[in-house]
Amino acid sequence: MISSTLLSAPIGFLPVVMFLALLRFFDSYKLVSVRAIMVILGAGGLTAIASYFANSFLMSTFDIEYSILTRYVAPIVEECLKASVIVWLLYHHRIGFLVDAAIAGFAVGTGFALVENFYYLQQNIVTNPGVWIVRGFGTAIMHGGVTAIFAILTQSLTERHMRINPLYLAPGLGAAIFLHSGFNHFFLSPLLHTACVLAVLPALLYLVFERSTASLRNWLQLDFDADADMLAQINSGEFSQSKIGHFLTELKDRFEGPVVVDMLCYLRLFTELALRAKALLMMREQGFDMPVDQEVKSMIEELKYLEQSIGKAGTLLLTPFLHFTRKDLWQLYVLES
Q1: Cα(298)–Cα(48) distance, rounded to whole angstroms?
Q2: Residue whose C-alpha is closest to residue 205's, from 99, 129, 293, 79
Q3: Phi, psi of 96 (to 5 degrees)
Q4: 41, 136, 146, 308: which has the highest count of C-beta atoms within 10 A?
């Protein structure tokens, strides 16, 4: 006879996975690929394993009571570890807007929750179907939700900066820890806590998606025109008379001729790739999932070579013309993913 645990355990897994799938479904631009989501899920699962060992160590070393651990210590440990995945994604320009920040954050929390619930299932710790409902619809989605909130706040505070100031991480991390700790206190009944999560989180993410989609659409329109003008200048016969042409001419006294040529090639190639990335996103919004061809991949490899050739100093000098932000670098990742 199949035990009640095996019958009710799927409730601990399916809701959070379905919620994540819905988040990606409602993202018309498909900013996070399925492959990327799977990798992020795995990273979130690893943070759950690391949290288990860290919490066990702290509990045994400092003789912490279980109630104190779950209410005050575990939220800090777990949210810091989950946040580290988001920080890595931001540092490597894998997040460009609030939508993909929300999806990536929720994916980290989903991976964490799946591993945590799998542990409870294997250990046969939870046998009451009612508890599995709380874990599946409440705790699991809470894990995804608070990490999504961290990702959203951090992306919002850092999107205009190439480097991530640790101070900008504090508001999102503090909010995630506070909400996680509050959920674990169960000031209300567990079912009411679960109902609150299900009532508040979807509405919050809906507002984020609406705001981010409008921002992304405006960015695509404005930057597409700017990139098109830039490429037209580079390819025109009057390029030497343009502002960029004068700038590169002045660089001849500071760099060798081949390096200046590489800088021009880098400028042209970066701009062309930026246009292709924006066109790809526009096509996705219209429902066309266009694959990235081999030519684009070759262009990306050439861009990386040119970046090494001109060096960091040369790249920084081109910044005023490339409008380097994390969004600009993120769009190249869109072509690689």
Answers
A1: 38
A2: 99
A3: -120, -25
A4: 146
Domain parsing of the chain, residue ranges: 4-215, 236-336
| pLDDT score of 239 | 67
Q: What are 194-215's pLDDT values in tens digits?
A: 999 999 999 999 999 999 988 8
Q: In terms of residues, how long is the chain?
A: 337
pLDDT band of 163, cuts 50, 70, 90: confident
Distance CA 144, CA 152 (A): 12
Residue the block writes with tokens 């959203």: 152
The answer to whether 205 touches 104, Cβ cutoff 8 Å, is no
Q: Give the pair of three-digit tokens for residue 307.
A: 């970046």
Q: Which of 91, 330, 333 is nearest to 223 (CA)?
A: 330
E strand or H helix at 16, and its extent? Answer: helix 14-26
- What whole-number distance in Å separates Cα of residue 143 and Cα of residue 145? 6
